[in-house]
Amino acid sequence: MDGAHRTFLIIGGGLAGAKAAQTLREEGFSGRVILIGDEHEHPYERPPLSKDYLVGRAERDSVYVHEPSWYAHHRVELHLGQPAVAIDRQAREVRLGDGTRLSYDALLLATGAEPRRLDVPGTDLAGVHHLRRLAHADHLRGVLTGGPSGGDAGLVIAGAGWIGLEVAAAARSLGVPVTVVEPEPTPLHRVLGPELGRFFTDLHLEHGVRFVFGSQLVEITGRDGMVASVRTDDGRELPARAVLAAIGAAPRTALAEAAGLALVDRAEGGGIAVDTALRTSDPLIFAAGDVASVALPGGAGDRRRVEHWANALNSGPAAARAMLGQQVSYDRVPYFFTDQYDVGLEYSGWAPPGDYDQVVYRGDVDKRAFLAFWLREGRVLAGMNVNIWDVTDPIQRLVRSPEPVDAEALADSETPLTSLLGERVPDELA
Fold this sequence. Notes:
It is built from nine helices and 25 strands. It is α/β, with parallel strands linked by helices. Strand 5 (93-96) and strand 6 (101-103) form a beta hairpin. The chain is globular and about 60 Å long.
């Protein structure tokens, strides 16, 4: 596809935006490709920020999606450190913070999400952290690698979600005392439910993490402008030299809202409403990554917004193809991976508490080598493989299948997973 006289703009310097630019060139688009990012960094991936990069096991260059020279070599124009502040849909222009106006023939919004802030006294103290950007990781890395603090005054993490637990594991690997304050009864309660939440509780307790469940922070107290302790709503005072707010992220929709694009209510996950081709309510504007709330196939009005790495990796290229006029129906199974201590896992699907009626295990949970499946009326809604690899494909096929499975066969390690779909499967995927 040529399009030599057309200009495609991408707002967002993360994985989705960078992969969209790459796909445009791979698909033969020869027009202008302009990528706008409000950070001065070249587009980078976020998973290392709470893992290897955070503890100093990965170099800074390793987080970038492409080498910096890739953009010039592929004629992708970069506007870094320059936020987009307005979209003029009638004029088909984007205005940048310095007043520059850029025209577009098609526009992709890959603006991502931003960390939710703690709404308590003391958040202005030095030592209060968020983790979303490379600069955030640099600051927190300095705290974690700065040597022992002495006593119990280590890191207090508000929130036991994926980011909170990954940072807890990273901090403990460096010997930093960690306390996690979580209002739910287990970690990851709203994602995995209490059954697997208890698995993560035991894992982190074994490595010295302290949990305070059923509580939340109400104040951060300081000394000489620095964090000294936190107070919880049940009256506890916990010593701290640093606090990480890991209470989730909110889609960055302000630009889309100001432009009059259709949004999704926060109670339904928020984000920019897009169809299965990732097209917004304006046919020339698309959205991908964390910010996009995608209509699910079937026309029932159901939507899903996914904030994980795989969604950015796949939806950016899908949006690029849709911008080129190709037929696109974006319907990926939600996927997430994490590494904590000696546990690596992959999770596919979506089964929050209340959606499932049974959890089935295959393998040895005590030895931390197992699969877990969340079922409703026999149908697999989600599956997780823990320290067992090369099974994501059959797990995702089970998730996609509308047919119920036999729970006993699902739990039987001798029964090939895809035989539950009436398929033969190679031994290595059994």
